[in-house]
Amino acid sequence: DLLDPDSRRGSDFFYHTGKVMEFAGKPNVADFFPFLRFFDPQGIRRETQFHVERAFEIAGEFIRERTEVRERESSDEKTKDYL
């Protein structure tokens, strides 16, 4: 579960999303000198992409698990499930 303090995946998810926010707030030299954008001299784009992909993988795992559980239980009762 995402909010379980003992969950390894939950803590990994929050770690990676935190890193994305950290890199989003970091000044990037390539923003001021567009010709450097391709070179990514600080590695911000590369690092951000890694953490975004990992966070999406973890979120996808949670979504797949939740949909599998709902399909197995498949009751007629309507529930509000916001993942």
TrEMBL record:
Molecular function terms from GO: heme binding; iron ion binding; monooxygenase activity; oxidoreductase activity, acting on paired donors, with incorporation or reduction of molecular oxygen
Gene3D superfamilies linked to this entry: Cytochrome P450
Protein name: Cytochrome P450 76A1
Species of the source: Noccaea caerulescens
Family listed: Belongs to the cytochrome P450 family.
Domain of life: Eukaryota
UniProt signal peptide: none
